[in-house]
Amino acid sequence: METRVKRYSRKNRIKRKIKKMGFWKIIRKILKILLRNMILLLIGLAYESYILIKGFNNIIAKLFMMMPRIQKVALIYLLVINFGMNVYDTFYIDKPKNIKESASEKVAITNTPELPQNLAVEEEKKEECIFDEVSCKIHSKAKKIGMSEEQTLISIAISRWETGNYTSKAFKEKNNVGGMMCTSGLIHYNSLDEGIEKFLINLKSNYFDIGLDTIEKIQKKYCPVGAANDPTGLNQYWLGGVTNLYNELHSK
Q1: Are 137 and 96 in a shared domain?
Q2: Contact assessment for residue 49 and residue 65, using Cβ atoms and an 8 Å cutoff
Q3: Which residues 6+ apart lie within 8 Å of 48 measured at CB?
Q4: Domain presence at residue 229
Q5: Which of 11, 56, 195, 220 could join 175 via S-S bond, C-beta 3.0 to 4.6 A?
Q6: 134 lies in the same domain as 231
Q7: Is the pTM of this model over 0.85?
Q8: What is the percent of the chain with per-residue pLDDT over 70, rounded to a whole number?
């Protein structure tokens, strides 16, 4: 039998605990427990309704309905708890990993070769293009055929000047991005990619690779002042125009 001293000491402990927790904290805790149980009961009721709606003729539904009320409640609680655990395992991202998962992850990390930081930065720069769409296509193709950044910017500046910033008739109707000519006049290309490729290969093979690597040197061969195919004397503006476009590209 419990003695009077023990009963009083237990009561004092309970009083001290209640005093320490505070009235509103106790109320909140009780409400939280009631709310949780209410939610579980509602889910259980919904699950029971689902079983009945799905098919009363189902043997499982019949057996369920034949069970005593206490067993029904117990079964519903078990189903709800199982459902809650499945939801927890599915959506709780920060759940602790087991030893096998941690070990396999460590192995995967140690076996992955680390890329140098400067290489990663270079890859990002290669993918980035801050120019317009056509200039970006020229930039990408120039890099693929081995042009330097300086040569690439010169090529874009020449193309923009020759096509009036990609608005000329030769550009729109002939896919000619650099004023490329033959004996019969401006050359027609089947696609823009083809026109860009021929333009860049011409610059690389017939200019950059033989030492004509500045705008001034290129101008004397590419667009000489006083040429027979320039009766109106527009070639005299080529050097200044291309240089200005190059400086604009270089400043970006």
Answers
A1: no
A2: no
A3: 64, 72, 76
A4: yes
A5: 195
A6: yes
A7: no
A8: 64
Residues 136 and 129: beta-carbon distance below 8 Å: yes
8-state DSSP, 167: T
The closest alpha carbon to 193, from 176, 205, 209, belongs to 176
* Highest-pLDDT range among 78-92, 146-160, 225-239: 146-160
Whether the per-residue pLDDT at 111 is higher than 50: the answer is no
pLDDT number for residue 228: 79
- Helix H or strand E encompassing 12: helix 4-21
- Measured in whole angstroms, the distance separating CA 230 from the mean position of its chain's CA atoms is 50
Amino acid at 8: Y
* Contact indicator for 215, 243 with CB cutoff of 8 Å: yes
Q: Range of 175's domain?
A: 129-250
CATH assignment at residue 228: 1.10.530.10
3-class secondary-structure state, position 191: coil
Helix 149-163, helix 215-222: angle, nearest 10:
40
Structure tokens at 15: 């009083």
Angle at 148 between CA 145 and CA 149, to 5 degrees: 120
What is the DSSP code (8-state) at residue 187?
Answer: P
On the CB side of 209, CA atoms within 13 Å amount to 10
